[in-house]
Amino acid sequence: MFEQLDPGLLEKIQTYGLEIGISLIKVILIFIVGRILISYIMKGLSKAFKKSELEVSLVAFLSSFFRFVLYIALVLVIAQSIDIKIAALLGVLGAAGLAIGLALQGSLSNFAGGILILVTKPFKVDDIIEAQGYFGVVEKIDILHTYLRTFDNQVIVMPNGSLANSNVTNTTIKDTRRAELKVGVAYGSDIAKVRQIILDVISKDDRINQDPAPVVKFINFGDSSLDLSVRVWTATDNLWPVYWDNMEAINNAFVKEGIEIPFPQRDIHMRTK
Fold this sequence. Notes:
Elements: H1 7-52, H2 56-81, H3 86-103, H4 105-120, E1 128-131, E2 134-141, E3 145-150, E4 155-159, H5 160-164, E5 168-170, E6 176-185, H6 191-203, E7 215-221, E8 226-235, H7 239-257
Antiparallel strand pairs: 1-2, 1-5, 2-3, 3-4, 6-8, 7-8
């Protein structure tokens, strides 16, 4: 069969076959060497990420991103080695990237917000935050969304784009916080005695810091009561237990000492002609 072919055509087939074979061997060798280099680079990046103590979600994303970039570079090197026009290839990739970017504008905004949150760390997993009108515990932060569990056990999924550009109150970022208890007593009560009773109560709670010292101040003439503010500092984890326990203890002390705790009331004066 091959004997019947034109000698010139046969020579061309052999030449093309040899060129294809050489190109294929070249591609395989470059790919193998490239994969080995990428593996070493990724191991080095992994060690660097561990030392930097980045968030797990950010580490996973950065690892995937750098691996993707390195493999794209490898593809371009292979294309160059077999004389594929890189400029044309880059043009195609650029046009595809632009089309994808226009189609995913919202997701790209969330993506950028996720990177910003994971890098700047305004909050982390297990922090208690208030944001976007919700208050709860951060359960998970990924590249596109943050998952917040409210205290009635609902999960709120917040887009990172809007979250990164809004006000966020992190209530657990500091080791200590100030608890403020509002107390009202009846008009005519001895303020000095009331203050001393409150100080005696809170002095029995070892969870309350003495520096800064607890403060009890008369703050307002209310509609039905003389209002006092009790301000104490405690560990962040103890904030609400300290608040609840001492409110109950103050009430019990007032009952024991005969301090009246008023309820809203009005005096009505009637006139007769």
